[in-house]
């Protein structure tokens, strides 16, 4: 019970400290308060697991997860390279890049807009657990099949966002470009693509999480003896839940960093947009 009592005391102290920092901490409180809150959650997690004698098979304490992170860095790095750099990132670049190119083609064809977008919405709704085994059969057990799953997951959200962005300009703006005798390419470059950038970055940000999820889930259906999905499925079978949580932690940090990078690029590229102004 001492761990539980200590957890409650730490929670009360951290809560009071956060309230004080919010009221008197100035601008630094925006960074310090989330850190204190996160550390408090980890301490309460540790205290409750130890105080209630919860089996590590059900929920390992954060200290055990941290030990797994520190002692098995080489395994985590190998899995990260296989899942993120080879599977997720390759599929992300291929899927998002091809979606933008197809969106530019669709933009010039009302027939494709009416025909392809409903099909795209249908394919985007297909369950990944049904799609992944098919891709593994088509492209093999290595990273190529995972990249194919990622392409299928990110292509249509990216396509829909880009097409909507290209239609974001109003009639008066397009008429103004016509009075300048601007060609289609000039209108696209100087008016429509800049107007579409917030929509394109929305698609890119959504696709960051989809890409990582798709690569990890695809590894459940066939993979060489490395990769985050492979490691999670095998370590669950061995009841090594600390390693499973370590892989989940790495995936969460990686996904957050990838999303944050896209958000930073969006801020730099669309600094003129009202949504980026303070």
UniProtKB/TrEMBL annotation:
The cellular location(s) given in this protein's UniProt record come to: Cell membrane
- Where do transmembrane segments lie in this chain? 26-45, 89-107, 119-141, 147-168, 199-223, 243-265
Give the ABC transmembrane type-1 domain ranges.
99-269
- InterPro entries membership: MetI-like, MetI-like_sf
Which of UniProt's keywords are assigned here? Cell membrane, Membrane, Transmembrane, Transmembrane helix, Transport
Does this entry carry the keyword Cell membrane? yes
Query: Which positions carry the signal peptide feature in this UniProt record?
Result: none
The keyword Transport appears for this protein: yes
Kindly give the membrane topology term recorded for this protein.
Multi-pass membrane protein
PANTHER family cross-referenced by the UniProt entry: ABC TRANSPORTER PERMEASE PROTEIN HI_0355-RELATED, ALKANE SULFONATE ABC TRANSPORTER-RELATED, MEMBRANE SUBUNIT
The name under which this protein is listed is ABC transporter permease
